[in-house]
Hints:
Layout: E1 3-4, E2 16-19, E3 22-28, E4 35-43, E5 46-50, H1 57-70, E6 76-80, H2 86-89, H3 92-99, E7 102-105, H4 107-118, H5 122-134, H6 142-149, H7 152-155, E8 164-165, E9 171-174, E10 177-184, E11 191-196, E12 201-205, H8 227-237, E13 246-249, E14 255-256, H9 258-279, H10 286-293, H11 300-319, E15 323-327, E16 333-337
Parallel strand pairs: 5-6, 6-7, 7-8, 12-13
Antiparallel strand pairs: 1-14, 2-3, 3-4, 4-5, 9-10, 10-11, 11-12, 13-14, 15-16
Helix pairs in contact: 5-6, 6-11, 9-11, 10-11
Amino acid sequence: MVEPLPLSPPQFGCPIPVAPGVHWLRTPMPFALDHINLWLLEDGCDFTLVDTGLASEPTMAIWSELISKWGGERTLRQLICTHFHPDHAGLAGWLVERLGPRFHMSREEWLTANLHRLDVGDEAYRGAERFYHCVGIPAERRPEITSAFFGYAERVRSLPRSFQRIRDGDRIEINGEPWEAIVTLGHAPEHVCLFNPRHKILISGDQVLPKITTNVSVGPWEPRANPLGMFLDALDSLRRLPADVTVLPSHGMPFKGLHARINQLQAHHDERLSSLRDGLVQPTTVLASLPLLFKRQFAPHDERFALGEALAHLNLLLARGQAVREESDDGVWRYRRV
C-alpha cells in the first residue's frame, strides 16, 4: 500500500522538517504541475541542497529571502542536481555563483544540460521540425510544436562551469553520513536518486512519484531510443531497497510503500503497452496513436510530451518484437502490430 506521510505540504518558500536532518521546501512552477519539492539536508552548520527549482523570478525571490534569513550563519555546502530538467537544475549556476557550494551532478546530465542550452540555432530547429514531420504532425502545425520544444535556456539561465561527477554507487557524505547515489535511466540520461541506509530515506527525484506517472519520452536527438525499457529496468533495481523506506519525491507527497508503487507503475505501463499494441491494426503514425494512450486533447507544450511518451511506448514494442515500423515515401513513420 502507498501511504502518504501524515503531513501537510509546506507553503512555497517555507521549509518544514520531514525526516531526520531533512527539510522539505517547495517552489512554484507555472504549469498544471504547479510545484517541485526540494530537499535541504542538514550538513554540519550548513545545508546540502537537492535540486533548485526553475530559473524564474518567484523562485529566485524565495531563495533570496531564505539566504537573507540565514544571515550569513548558514550557507549551502553542497548542491546536488538529480537531473538536467529545468525544475531541477534551473538555478544551479545562480546558486553556485552566489553561495559557492560544491556542485554534484552525473556527467551525462551535465553534458545534456549544456547541449540544451547551446543547441538552439537554425540547424537544431530544422532537425526538430524534421522529427515532428516523421511522427505525423501536419505541416501547418509543425512550427508551433517545434517552437514549444525550445525554451530550455530561458528556464536554466546558467550552469556551473565545473562539477563533481556522480556515478552509480558513489557515496556522498552529508552531515557525516554516507548517501548512496543510485543512477536510474529512462526519464533522463543519467538520473540520480539518493539513499540514506541509516534512516531508510530515498530521495527519488522523478523516478518514483506517488500519484502521477513519470514522463518517459523519446525526442528528436535520439528517435530510436528505448528509454521506457530502461525506466522499467530501473524501477526493478529499486526493489533491493527496504520495503519501509521513506520516499521523498520531486512532486506530490512523501510516502511509504516503495515496492507497492513500483508494482503500480509497472502495471500501468503494461496496460498502456497492451492497449497500444491492440490498436495498431493498421499502420499508424505516432500522432494517430495518442488516443490509444490518452483520453484528452493537448496544447502544443503538452502535446510534445505526449508524442514523446507515445514514441517511447512504440519503441519498446519494437524492441520486444511486438510491432514493426514502416517509413512511407513521405518520410512519416507508421507502426503496426506483429
